[in-house]
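Structure in, sequence out. Go:
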């Protein structure tokens, strides 16, 4: 209703609700089909947003305009049979408590409240407003659309406010939206002198930029006088349909809610209502004292003398010229509900009189009160079943169970620099519409602020870019987080991702870690420069070994070749040739066959080479240790002894390799972890224990050769290989001692290169230390490769060695040949 009494000020916008009653009554009285020959009338009473005045106004209506006397009617002519009110649930309950005693129908036009739907407590109360059970969903949909997740909630401190907060929190959790703060506005303090509280400074001081306000005009009356700064603040206010955000006590303060978004009831336009509003003047209704007072207040003519005509105050005044905060020409949701409520009463009466026409003839004043009470009782049964189409074409039901969900227009409140303001429709929310059509917003039509046209950022923490993930902050809501880089090997192409996606084994993350790229397959390829160099080295060394073998075969009858056991030399050279060639098995794309052959072929042929050196070393020592004929040591100088040494030592290695291949052999493997961007194809050794047993056995044989050669290093050096073998074993140990830690510390292709280099280095060491000096003598110092030269050289040193090594002449050399 309307609010004007000292010390309260006019809430001019609420006067439209009274005009809606006037418009509906006049429209019904002009309708010849609805209540023919009956004219409707009405009384308007004010509640002043006070429980006390609400009860007082209800008693006035029941007992008359004179002194309030409960259960007594002063006006005999009063035939009022229904009450339309109030604007809030609290006022409806205050009125209903009294009106229900007399069974007067009460039609509430305020927001729908499920509590009032309880017919046990409120049997005479009817609600006309649509259901608001989806309002919280629409508000959260708006937050999700603009990606706001750090929200402040303000609600009235009553049951409706608590219910809204509960529904909002539940819906916000479903959509990953967090509550920054919750402020409950006291509803009992409705006077402006009592409203200077500290809640508004707390709200404005918060870091939240998006604030939702829920409550009706009555319960949020305190906000009309709250201390909001005159300067614009960078906050987005979202108001629900129950509260008119434009209604401020001073027009200059309206800019505090500039760019606010409000959910208003989406209603159809009632034909003729705007035209009716434009024609409203005090002269049209000279007996309406309330209109005169409204006119003086709205057009600021309070300084005019009371006896002066209204036209002299504002001769050209029109409701259309008032600002939005003072009056609105478009029918509000409350006025629309009042309009339907008046028609509901008219249609119920129409049905009542059509069924019982005799009641219309009762005109005896003595029976007026009886008729009034009788009509009230009878009207209930008709109101429950009343349904009709209003002039806008909307279906209207009085039965609350048939009410549909409310539809909302999303309005943008704009305060212009020239002092005017407006509500601009920027979207709508229709809960019962199909998914995708239920929520629509026109972002380009929204005015956000005077200084920035961008959508405000209503978040606790800035979004994490792709390639980063959200790291929760201890003790903070889920919307507050830090952004940390993705772990190695994981990616995410989404903003604000909480979980990282691990790339498949054949893919790797890019530098931004927001995309998985295919890994490059790599191995020691024969086409790449390093592979070609290693192949060239292996082939070159093998050809060089073959050339040495050819030299030894060609000069096999010379003393230097005969003195060094030709068969063992041939065996050693052939095994070295295969050692060099075995390096080729490590180059190229690994296959099952190459992986089986790589380690085993090298191990066997290299064991043959070391066994040959061991046999040579033993024979050299034995040859120089044979002192006299008939010594038992001579039995070990037989040529087959060297063959047995090579065969037995090599056979043991073959057994090791056979066990290795039979239990856990090497196999091709795709290494996806050594290099993030590559898949390295290598051969897995299979059994690591077997692999190191094979290497250890070769090391054991080499150690035996080195020990024996070291003990024989001071023997006569005429065709003596002991010194060369000692140096060669030092080279061998240097190479393989370096290989082992390097092999363990490298992965993939580098590990293969290290092994190839070790094979080539150790094999070339054998070739260079043992055979190259002999080839030099054979090819370039042929004069030294004679029996006479060597005998003279040996005799010249005989004085120092004859005591220890007698008979070291040609016989000794011949025995060595054996």
């Amino acid at each position: 209703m309307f609010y004007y009494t000292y010390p309260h000020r006019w809430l001019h916008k609420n006067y439209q609700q009274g005009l809606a009653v006037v418009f509906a009554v006049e429209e019904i009285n002009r309708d010849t089909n609805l209540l023919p020959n009956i004219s409707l009338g009405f009384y308007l009473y004010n509640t002043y947003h006070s429980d006390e005045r609400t009860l007082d106004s209800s008693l006035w209506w029941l007992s008359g305009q004179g002194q309030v006397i409960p259960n007594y009617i002063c006006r005999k002519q009063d035939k009022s049979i229904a009450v339309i009110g109030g604007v809030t649930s609290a006022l409806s309950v205050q009125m209903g408590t009294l009106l229900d005693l007399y069974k007067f129908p009460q039609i509430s036009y305020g927001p729908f409240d499920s509590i009032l739907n309880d017919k046990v407590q409120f049997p005479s109360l009817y609600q006309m407003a649509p259901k608001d059970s989806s309002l919280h969903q629409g508000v959260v949909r708006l937050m999700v659309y603009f990606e706001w997740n750090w929200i402040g909630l303000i609600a009235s401190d009553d049951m409706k406010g608590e219910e809204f907060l509960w529904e909002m929190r539940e819906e916000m959790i479903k959509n990953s939206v967090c509550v920054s703060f919750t402020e409950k506005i006291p509803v009992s303090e409705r006077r402006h002198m009592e409203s200077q509280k500290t809640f508004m400074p707390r709200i404005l001081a918060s870091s939240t930029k998006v604030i939702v306000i829920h409550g009706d005009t009555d319960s949020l009356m305190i906000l009309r006088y709250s201390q909001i700064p005159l300067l614009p603040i960078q906050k987005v206010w979202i108001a629900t349909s129950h509260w008119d955000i434009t209604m401020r006590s001073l027009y200059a303060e309206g800019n505090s809610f500039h760019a606010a978004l409000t959910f208003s009831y989406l209603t159809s336009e009632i034909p003729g209502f705007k035209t009716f509003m434009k024609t409203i003047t005090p002269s049209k209704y000279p007996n309406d004292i309330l209109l005169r007072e409204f006119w003086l207040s709205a057009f600021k003519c309070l300084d005019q003398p009371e006896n002066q005509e209204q036209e002299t105050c504002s001769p050209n005044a029109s409701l259309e010229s008032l600002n939005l905060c003072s009056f609105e020409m478009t029918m509000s949701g409350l006025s629309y509900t009042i309009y339907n409520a008046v028609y509901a009463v008219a249609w119920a009466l129409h049905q009542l009189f059509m069924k019982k026409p005799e009641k219309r003839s009762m005109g005896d004043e003595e029976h007026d009160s009886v008729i009034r009470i009788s009509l009230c009782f009878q009207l209930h049964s008709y109101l429950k079943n009343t349904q009709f189409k209003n002039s806008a074409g909307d279906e209207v039901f009085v039965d609350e169970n048939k009410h549909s969900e409310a539809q909302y227009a999303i309005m943008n409140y704009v305060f212009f620099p020239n002092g005017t303001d407006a509500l601009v429709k920027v979207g709508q929310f229709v809960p019962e519409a199909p998914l995708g059509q239920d929520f629509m917003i026109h972002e380009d039509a929204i005015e956000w602020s005077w200084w920035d046209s961008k959508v405000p950022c209503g978040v606790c923490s800035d979004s994490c870019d792709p390639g980063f993930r959200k790291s929760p902050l201890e003790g903070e809501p889920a919307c507050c987080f830090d952004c940390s880089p993705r772990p190695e090997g994981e990616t995410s192409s989404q903003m604000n991702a909480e979980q990282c996606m691990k790339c498949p084994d054949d893919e790797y993350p890019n530098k931004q870690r927001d995309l998985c790229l295919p890994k490059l397959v790599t191995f020691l390829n024969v086409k790449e420069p390093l592979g070609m160099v290693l192949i060239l080295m292996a082939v070159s060394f093998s050809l060089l070994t073959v050339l040495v073998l050819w030299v030894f075969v060609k000069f096999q009858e010379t003393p230097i070749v005969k003195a060094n056991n030709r068969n063992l030399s041939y065996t050693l050279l052939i095994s070295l040739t295969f050692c060099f060639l075995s390096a080729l098995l490590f180059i190229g794309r690994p296959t099952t066959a190459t992986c089986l052959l790589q380690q085993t072929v090298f191990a066997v042929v290299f064991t043959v080479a070391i066994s040959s050196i061991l046999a040579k070393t033993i024979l050299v020592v034995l040859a120089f240790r044979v002192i006299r004929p008939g010594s038992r040591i001579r039995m070990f100088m037989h040529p087959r002894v060297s063959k047995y040494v090579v065969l037995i030592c090599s056979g043991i290695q073959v057994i090791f390799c056979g066990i290795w291949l039979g239990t856990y052999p090497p196999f091709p493997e795709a290494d996806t972890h050594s290099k993030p961007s590559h898949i390295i194809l290598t051969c897995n050794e299979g059994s690591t224990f077997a692999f190191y047993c094979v290497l250890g056995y070769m090391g054991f044989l080499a150690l035996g050769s080195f020990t024996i050669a070291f003990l024989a290093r001071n023997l006569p050096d005429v065709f003596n290989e002991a010194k060369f073998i000692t140096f060669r074993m030092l080279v061998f140990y240097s190479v393989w001692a370096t290989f082992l830690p390097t092999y363990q510390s490298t992965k993939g292709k580098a590990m293969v290169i290290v092994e190839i280099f070790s094979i080539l280095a150790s094999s070339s060491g054998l070739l260079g230390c043992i055979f190259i000096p002999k080839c030099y003598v054979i090819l370039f110092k042929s004069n030294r490769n004679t029996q006479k030269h060597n005998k003279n050289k040996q005799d010249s040193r005989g004085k120092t060695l004859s005591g220890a090594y007698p008979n070291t002449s040609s016989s000794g050399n011949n025995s060595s040949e054996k």
